């Protein structure tokens, strides 16, 4: 079965939401930044699939060619492919460890990718957009790219004057060699026009303005897209020229097309048209350090080929540890796997997404992580614990709603509450909670599709906090105590009508809290899939009812069986702080 046919069969006439992470360079071990990119994409992809009408496809993987990998392999005395196999596995293990629901883990050493790279090179060559020439300029080994002198600066380091890239702060050296060049400048005006007509193409806005300003004020040089084979051995060979290897960014960026099955189905009358049910175009998630490659080079490659541009490019910022960018030299690199061994996978996932601010650098500290986990335990999980005890009955409360026993509840609360003075507050909170629950999916959706995860989770916390407040102020345990006293003391027996009324009040408050847990757990699945699954299992919510069709009050009337059984353990355990 061909890739194109299998994708069309899978998506059944539905245009999938296609989201990608950067492909991670295998010259070092995975770190928090890599995980962050994965989680931004994973959350968005999982959110899309909450709606049964929608489908999504997530791509992640590794970039495996280039001089840095060649150099490391030579130092270790091993074949570069073996090195790539070893290090690529580390990234795959990271994604699997953190429950990243990717559809393909692509590697630039995959044979279908190499074929696409050769095919795309030939397109550019046939269009007269690739020419051979001599090249000199400021080359950065770390970034594997030449920079215009205007994008470099001199600094003092260890008593020596060196030149660095203004963007990445990595050292550059002056170098001259024979390469193939792509006529990047020929498409500068076309890209400017496209950006002006599509101001949401790059997000956040200040990144869009940065790229547009650079394009309008600096003429793009033609781009070196190959290296001599005498210097760069570990890369894809230029078609029909064994003396040159393809420049890694020209190779790497094409991975986003490889996963779509390109060029199969795209070729139509000497043009490239995206097949109706194909994955393309993508929404790219990238870090700010690779903005130039994705927001200038990549769109121009596609414009030159006549291929539809990506849907959107989301540029996220970095994570700072104790106020500084993470680096080995500072000793402040956070190992997400080590952290997860203590705090748990979902606690790390939740913390990173709850604090995901794509506009600015995010702040990591173990104190903040600990507080985030404590909130999940003390507010979200504890709400379930409060109504899941033996004094209450979640299943019975659901049946009360199913049998329309809460239809007159406002008047009923006014007439039967033990503490009359708090009735107005109870009614206000319960009204606001119900309104917020019924609108929670739509409101969170507005934020999540804009990658405004912080505010989406704030909306989620709002209903959790309101439910806890309602439970605390309504004090359903007082009615339980009254009913228990009625059973144990002959002298203070309640009349049958009062017993019935107290049970109704108990079940009403339990029901609103259980609906809060059910709906909020469905909607937090994209972020904490394991913990939310445990809680939905505890409520005995059917797997088929854990989607956006069931995120309003009363949409599921058959859950709660055995939810109050003594056999259940806390879904999240309290930890002793390890912070000194």
Name the features.
580 residues, alpha/beta, Rossmann fold, Isoleucyl-tRNA Synthetase, Domain 1, 2 domains, six-stranded parallel sheet, elongated, disordered N terminus
How would you describe this protein?
- There is one protein chain.
- The protein has helices at 3-11, 32-50, 67-76, 80-97, 111-126, 188-197, 205-217, 248-252, 255-258, 291-305, 336-343, 345-354, 366-387, 394-402, 409-416, 423-448, 453-474, 476-488, 496-523, 529-538; strands at residues 17-25, 56-63, 104-107, 130-140, 145-147, 152-157, 160-165, 171-182, 202-203, 223-224, 226-228, 237-238, 241-246, 267-268, 271-272, 283-287, 312-316, 319-321, 324-325, 362-364.
- The two termini are 57 Å apart.
- The protein folds into two domains: 14-316, 3-Layer(aba) Sandwich (Rossmann fold), CATH 3.40.50; 362-550, Isoleucyl-tRNA Synthetase, Domain 1 (Orthogonal Bundle), CATH 1.10.730.
- 47% of the residues lie in helices and 17% in strands.
- With 580 residues, it is of the alpha/beta class.
- A six-stranded parallel beta sheet has the order 3-2-1-16-17-9, sandwiched between helices. Strands 4, 5, 6, 7, 8 and 10 form a six-stranded antiparallel beta sheet that branches.
- Mean pLDDT is 92; it is low at 1-12.
- Helix 12 (345-354) crosses helix 13, helix 15 packs across helix 19 and helix 18 runs antiparallel to helix 19 (496-523).
